[in-house]
Amino acid sequence: MDGIFVKNVAISIPEIKNIIKKSKEFISDVHLMSVNPEEQIKQLLGYVNFATIHFESRNYAQIKEIISKYSRKIKIGIAIKPETKIEQIYDLLPEIQLVLIMSVEPGKGGQAFIENTYKKIEELSKIIQENNYKIIIQVDGGIKDFNSKKVFDSGADVIVVGTFLAEKPTKLKIKKLIN
Q1: Which residues contact 174 (CB under 8 A, 6 or more apart)?
Q2: Measured between alpha carbons, how far is 92 from 78 in angstroms, rounded to an integer?
Q3: What superkingdom heads the lineage (predicted)?
């Protein structure tokens, strides 16, 4: 979060690099909520597995250029805001490895899950299957124990859970998310 694309600011690139150095056994995906994702991707090359940029952060031609320029060096993901339609990213799907569907407005934790996200997940999952794309579907925002199963059943491969776990992380909460 750069304070421009969304109002909040999150961890810095040096902090990300430090975290990655200490946790190399994990797959790393950095969600870049930034108006200048290309500059951040350059700094993250060699450190992270995935760099996920927001479709809405640049114009379409600039997003295509970033994907073309960096997709051989790092796995590129595209994040879409709740109001962005799946059709808007159809042409990008053959070139990316991950789609992050935001199920809340990006930039602030603790929001409620937006219900029409299930249909977006199903639609994207169907397109991926029909075209035999190798794309991970990730969903972020408002994920709790009572909706995680439906998110997975709709076609998500990965969920991002923040506030639900941060409030009081327990093994039981984690089990409820994945069962």
Answers
A1: 165
A2: 9
A3: Bacteria
Q: How far apart are CA 33 and CA 5, in angstroms?
A: 6
Alpha-carbon separation of residue 90 from 61, 84, 110, 133 (angstroms): 14, 12, 30, 11
CA proximity to 80, closest of 70, 71, 90: 90
The token duo for 119 is 């249909």
- What is residue 116's three-state secondary structure? coil
pLDDT digits (tens, 9 = 90+) for 113-168: 999 999 999 999 999 999 999 999 999 999 999 999 999 999 999 999 877 877 77
The set of residues, in sequence order, having a beta carbon less than 8 Å from that of 80 and lying 6+ positions away, is: 54, 55, 56, 86, 88, 89, 99, 100, 101, 102
Global pTM reads: 0.89
Confirm if 125 and 117 have CB atoms less than 8 A apart.
Answer: no
